[in-house]
Specification:
CATH topology of the largest domain: Rossmann fold
Shape: globular
Radius of gyration: 20 Å
CATH architecture of the largest domain: 3-Layer(aba) Sandwich
Number of strands: 8
Distance between the termini: 50 Å
Number of domains: 2
Number of helices: 9
CATH superfamily of the largest domain: NAD(P)-binding Rossmann-like Domain
Helix content: 40-55%
Order of helices and strands: EHEHEHEHEHHEHHEEH
Strand content: 5-15%
CATH class of the largest domain: Alpha Beta
């Protein structure tokens, strides 16, 4: 018996890296899986069927059940087609893992509009495009569900040269928190992960070149958290963002300091007063 027996799970960007490990682990836990991948390169260019087909082959040869989908997450038509693939093949959707992504890194001063638009389209818009039809299906079905989005430490903590990627990933964290509130009444929970792993998306980042990093940050170490979040074991968990990688799982939180409340002059601060209180404001 697996913790996902009887469930149907969609994984986007599942043709390689972290997404592939998600799909394999989810299938091994008993779920029927839609393996979505456009089949493009790391920067989003190109397409093809081989990547998704190979993961489906791995799952079926191991005794699991999966179907490939090659639609682009960055369009409403693509998102609807991904959801429909699950419904047509398996009859329902119990969980969605929004993992698809690309990288087009540049510093802000050198960022071209196309580099910005493409990253926002795949990550942030893509999360919306796939989630909306899945969310509506879950509401209509009335059995709840789990939506797992992919944020990043680049968006939540910052990273040099990734203003486009960081903005998209921070947006996904905000999207997740709002979606969790909208899904509560229908029993649909929404969480996000901020994974750290050695993949083709991260292999040329400076810290990834350190000795032993490839083994320590194997993408398969991310997948168990996703299996948990897709399963009924996490039925009380929603509106959370988890850091995961290298064997570590922790919650990432947005916090607000106690701050300082100005009680005189109707609460109107002047800049000099703010300067005098800034240490207390930030404490």
């Amino acid at each position: 018996m697996g913790v996902l027996d009887g469930k149907v799970v969609i994984v986007t960007g599942a043709g390689g890296g972290i997404g592939r490990e998600h799909a394999l682990a989810i299938a091994a836990a008993g779920a029927q899986v839609v393996v979505n991948d456009l089949g493009g390169s790391r920067d989003g260019s190109g397409d093809g069927t081989a990547m998704a087909d190979e993961v489906v082959k791995e799952i079926t040869e191991a005794g699991g059940e999966a179907v490939a989908n090659y639609d682009n997450v960055a369009s409403m038509e693509g998102g609807a087609a991904i959801a429909q693939t699950a419904i047509d093949r398996f009859g329902k959707i119990d969980a969605l893992v929004n993992n698809a992504g690309i990288l087009r890194d540049k510093t802000l001063s050198k960022m071209e509009e196309g580099l910005w638009d493409s990253v926002i389209a795949v990550h942030l818009k893509g999360t919306f495009c796939v989630t909306q039809p899945v969310f509506n299906h879950m509401k209509e079905r009335g059995q709840g569900g789990s939506i797992i989005n992919t944020s990043s430490t680049s968006g939540l903590e910052g990273n040099f040269g990734q203003t486009n990627y960081g903005a998209a990933k921070a947006g996904i964290a905000g999207f997740t928190r709002c979606l969790a509130l909208e899904g509560q009444r229908a029993g649909i929970r929404a969480n996000a992960i901020a994974p750290v792993a050695f993949t083709r998306m991260t292999e040329d980042l400076q810290f990834m070149g350190k000795e032993g990093m490839k083994d320590r940050l194997d993408p398969k170490l991310v997948a168990p958290l996703v299996v948990y979040l897709a399963s009924d074991l996490s039925k009380e968990i929603t509106k959370r963002v988890f850091y995961v990688g290298g064997g570590t799982i922790s919650e990432m939180r947005m916090v607000r300091t106690a701050g300082v409340t100005k009680k005189d002059n109707d609460g109107l601060w002047d800049p000099e007063e703010i300067a005098g209180s800034i240490d207390q404001i930030l404490a």
